[in-house]
Amino acid sequence: MLYLVGLGLADEKDITVKGLEIVKKAERVYLEAYTAILLVEKEQLEAFYGRPVIIADREMVESSSDEILAGADKTDVAFLVVGDPFGATTHTDLVLRARSLSVPTRSIPNASILTSIGTTGLQLYNFGQTVSMVFFLETWRPASFYDRIAENVSIGLHTLVLLDIKVKEQSLENMARGRLIYEPPRFMTVAQCAAQMLEIEEEVKKEGVYTRESLAVGVARVGAVDEKIVAGTLGELCDADLGRPLHSLVLLGRRTHDLEREFLEEFAVDKEKFASVWKRDYEGKQ
Amino acid sequence: MLYLVGLGLADEKDITVKGLEIVKKAERVYLEAYTAILLVEKEQLEAFYGRPVIIADREMVESSSDEILAGADKTDVAFLVVGDPFGATTHTDLVLRARSLSVPTRSIPNASILTSIGTTGLQLYNFGQTVSMVFFLETWRPASFYDRIAENVSIGLHTLVLLDIKVKEQSLENMARGRLIYEPPRFMTVAQCAAQMLEIEEEVKKEGVYTRESLAVGVARVGAVDEKIVAGTLGELCDADLGRPLHSLVLLGRRTHDLEREFLEEFAVDKEKFASVWKRDYEGKQ
């Protein structure tokens, strides 16, 4: 059996009791380590599980999935995924590959940022589609997220923006020379995301889908003891410092509930500003 | 401290290791038992925790929250929620009440149907807002879900429909006579949901947001060993039997990915029909 086991968001104890039992008895244990990361190191997981953990990078999962699946028709293989196993497309691929090899699969669900974002007090049924924000490069500033946000905004919904992480990345030079030297991991911050969003709105699209005064919420380390929430305008969030990764951002839709305001205002960068923008642009809107 | 502890979806072992540690040391343990249910009885939870569990019904949570919060400024109280703690609005209320009493709170995230629905192979970033479907009564057939679905459909997105559960419900007669006699619990099935959706489309709204030939996916007992997935047209799902609760339904948006088709077709009521409707109405649509 191939078990896809969700690890939740923060540390080794966010695995479920059921998931832990599977990990402890599996023949091999892989950790998918490129679509998201836990806030603890692999060694801490290994100590907690009492088992070695094999890091599965993108290349292994996408090109060498048969290696992961080897023998899984007879013994148990655990494939650990940060968050929920079905948060990322790539795991659907792995299950399809297992199916074609007649390897049975089972998924052990866990928390995902897609629902844990409810920690902001924003109502989950008010969210539209989720978008991703990648690190802009000098010559590559993809704006496709903007059209998705525009769709959500058109029907008044919040948008969760998931922020880029870069792990095991080679510099162009090292790649060209075939040197397996990797850059230090990078994680996009709420401030970087807010700035990129405003750049696309103000310099490229100019459709007024959102402005520097639109309200947004930044979160960091959701589910951890030092979870942090900051609410403010996109302009304000360009200067917000939420500390170490992982960060996410929510752009508010106009269809809000007063409970959302009440919950969020405690986390406002500037409570007065937050209240006045809320009253002007959000309160009572449908 | 008030801990809101997510229990996940299926049984007592879906709690996280962190959540279980909190439950074992809390002064009192409440179980919210009206927005969702686990697939096991309270006694099974108590045996697993080694602790008594107090059932918190809607009335207690909404009207007597101070009872739950009593002493939580000095000792630990665990409030268990099926799924993720922030899946339902009512828990935001409880946290706000705690805040006003200076009771610190912490939430322990867990799996929610909002992400575990990914078990269908449908891509989570293709989902729009979530809607709820209540049991229709003779004279009360609320159609507000329809307008929300219409919004999602207009931008090509999938819609997760959460199905009504009725627990601790009094008959009108018993209520009138003040008798605290409760009806047996009721859980809406995928078939009932599909039929109610078609009734509103065909007899009330007639806007063509979806038809009897629209593709949908029914799921039951997500995360449990006997999890079941059935894909088909809304018409076909009117006759689908997915067994015991809980059920949920997804109406597909036209913006699909071929991986979704490949994953789903294994679960189709009628594979040929599924393939032909997909090809006609979904494939390559944006």
UniProtKB/TrEMBL annotation, chains A, B:
Q: Which EC numbers does the record give?
A: 2.1.1.314
Binding of S-adenosyl-L-methionine, residues: L9, D84, G87, S112, I113, L163, V222, H247
**Catalytic activities:** 2-[(3S)-amino-3-carboxypropyl]-L-histidyl-[translation elongation factor 2] + 4 S-adenosyl-L-methionine = diphthine methyl ester-[translation elongation factor 2] + 4 S-adenosyl-L-homocysteine + 3 H(+)
Q: What metabolic or biological pathway is this protein involved in?
A: Protein modification; peptidyl-diphthamide biosynthesis
Q: Which GO terms describe its biological process?
A: methylation; protein histidyl modification to diphthamide
Positions of the Tetrapyrrole methylase domain: 1-237
Asked if the keyword Methyltransferase belongs to this entry, the reply reads yes
Per UniProt, the keywords (alphabetical) are:
Methyltransferase, S-adenosyl-L-methionine, Transferase
GO terms for MF: diphthine methyl ester synthase activity
- Highest rank taxon of the organism: Eukaryota
Q: Which family does it belong to?
A: Belongs to the diphthine synthase family.
What function does the entry list? Answer: S-adenosyl-L-methionine-dependent methyltransferase that catalyzes four methylations of the modified target histidine residue in translation elongation factor 2 (EF-2), to form an intermediate called diphthine methyl ester. The four successive methylation reactions represent the second step of diphthamide biosynthesis.
* PANTHER family in the record: DIPHTHINE METHYL ESTER SYNTHASE, DIPHTHINE SYNTHASE
| The name this protein goes by in its record | Diphthine methyl ester synthase
User: What is the species of this protein?
Assistant: Mytilinidion resinicola
